[in-house]
Design goal:
Length: about 300
């Protein structure tokens, strides 16, 4: 039998080790929180200084960016429209393919096929976005120019297609999780009534998982809104208000990349506008992301109950 003093020493040592681990984890969490707080503080301070001189409504509604003019104009509307066009166009390409892939993996694919396609999806998620951008510039755009000779070298259509390809793994993985969260007895009941599997999928499975699928689309769109390299290489850096997918445009992220490498002096209004655009991008992506997370939690709550 182990002496009581040895047993007590072992218990005290384990407790000290657990406290040390807890302190290390707390320190790591604190570093992340402090870093986020510092980023937000700088963003809010510089953007606040900009909006103290420029009306937010004017900033969001102007279509011209001319900070060096006699009457400086800081119009972010073309950037907003371009960002929305890329995100919406990417969703148009990614949603049908991603949802059908998720349904196939969840309901029709065999074990080996599901593992193979899951591996391919994971591989797609690991491709650097600059590689996708080069693919858009040197393969997708030349192919589109064969079909439409009048399309510009930098165009929104190519960017939408390749950004859609980039967010496809997100749609597949999150949609599949939403489909898997639907209770199996619900599907079994439909099959037991004699309904074909396709009808059970369309009438029972997809409606039950609709909240999670919509959340997957929103989270994928948040990624599309924040994408930089693909839109910079494929869509160009021309800030203009256009609705044609065959023309080039500029997004918020591409503009931040261009302005961040410029010669704007610290403290100038052009420098502060850099953070104002960043604040608009942050609010947009955060809002989309949180809406997706809320839909995921509500979907899980419904299926769990």
């Amino acid at each position: 039998m182990m002496p009581r003093s040895v047993s007590g020493a072992g218990t005290a040592s384990r407790a000290a080790g657990e406290r040390l681990v807890a302190h290390v984890l707390l320190a790591c969490t604190a570093v992340a929180v402090v870093a986020l707080a510092a980023v937000l503080a700088v963003l809010v301070r510089e953007a606040g200084l900009f909006f103290a001189d420029v009306s937010p409504w004017r900033f969001l509604s102007e279509i011209t960016w001319a900070p060096a003019a006699a009457e400086p104009r800081f119009g972010v509307l073309p950037l907003l429209v371009g960002t929305v066009q890329i995100a919406a166009g990417a969703a148009v390409f990614a949603l049908p393919a991603g949802l059908m892939t998720a349904v196939y993996l969840d309901q029709y694919a065999g074990g080996r096929t599901a593992r193979l396609l899951s591996g391919v999806t994971a591989l797609m998620a690991g491709v650097p976005t600059v590689v996708y951008g080069l693919f858009a510039l040197h393969f997708v755009t030349p192919a589109l120019r064969v079909l439409w000779p009048g399309i510009e070298a930098f165009n929104a259509l190519s960017a939408c297609m390749v950004v859609g390809l980039m967010i496809l793994p997100t749609v597949v993985v999150l949609s599949r999780e939403a489909l898997e969260s639907v209770p199996a007895p619900l599907l079994d009941a439909g099959l037991a009534l004699g309904a074909p599997k396709g009808r059970v999928v369309t009438r029972v499975l997809l409606p039950a998982a609709s909240g999670g699928v919509l959340a997957a689309v929103l989270i994928a769109m948040a990624r599309a809104v924040g994408e930089t390299m693909i839109v910079t290489l494929a869509a160009g850096n021309e800030s203009r208000l256009t609705w044609s997918p065959f023309e080039g445009l500029q997004t918020l992220t591409a503009f931040l990349t261009e302005l961040g490498m410029g010669d704007a002096a610290t403290g100038t209004r052009e420098f502060q506008a850099f953070f104002a655009v960043g604040a608009v991008l942050f609010v947009g992506t955060y809002g989309i992301h949180m809406a997706g997370r809320m839909l995921v939690s509500r979907s899980v709550g419904r299926t769990g109950s």
